[in-house]
Amino acid sequence: MESKSPHRGIDMHRLPVGGDFPGLVFAVGTALIFLIALPALWYLVVGALAVGLVIAAVLQVIYDKKDISRRSVFKI
Predict the structure, then answer these.
(1) Who's near 42: CB < 8 A, 6+ residues apart?
(2) What letter would DSSP give residue 39?
(3) Measured in Å, how far apart are the chain's first and last C-alpha atoms?
(4) I need a labelling partner for 32 at 20 to 30 A (CA). Which of 22, 50, 59, 69 fits?
(5) Torsion angle, CA of 37/38/43/45, rounded to 10 degrees?
(6) DSSP structural state of residue 18
(7) H helices within 1-76, ranges in order?
(8) pLDDT in tens, 24-41
(9) Is the distance from CB of 35 to CB of 41 less than 8 angstroms?
(10) pLDDT at residue 54, rounded to an integer
């Protein structure tokens, strides 16, 4: 027998997750859940991690905090 009303439980859009440590825990936990369910995704996750680290290193070099004079500063 099907219910005509949707489930009233917690939806994903109602979970507040910030961009700090709890957000990192949520992202890693979600990735681990998918990896446990689908072990073939390990290669994809390792590749994405490698690409992400390369992008982070490039951005760190581009936006080096020592050389602020070359940055554009927008004042409102």
Answers:
(1) 35
(2) G
(3) 59
(4) 59
(5) -50
(6) -
(7) 21-37, 42-62
(8) 888 888 888 888 888 888
(9) yes
(10) 94
The predicted model scores a pTM of: 0.47
Whether the Cβ atoms of residue 55 and residue 62 lie closer than 8 Å to each other: no
17 vs 23: CA distance, rounded Å: 5
Which residues 6+ apart lie within 8 Å of 26 measured at CB? 15, 17
User: Tokens at residue 63, please?
Assistant: 């936006």
Separation of alpha carbons 25 and 17, rounded Å: 10
Could you give the CA distance from residue 65 to residue 76 in angstroms, rounded to a whole number? 22
How far from 65 is each of 22, 25, 56, 75, CA to CA, in Å? 26, 28, 14, 19
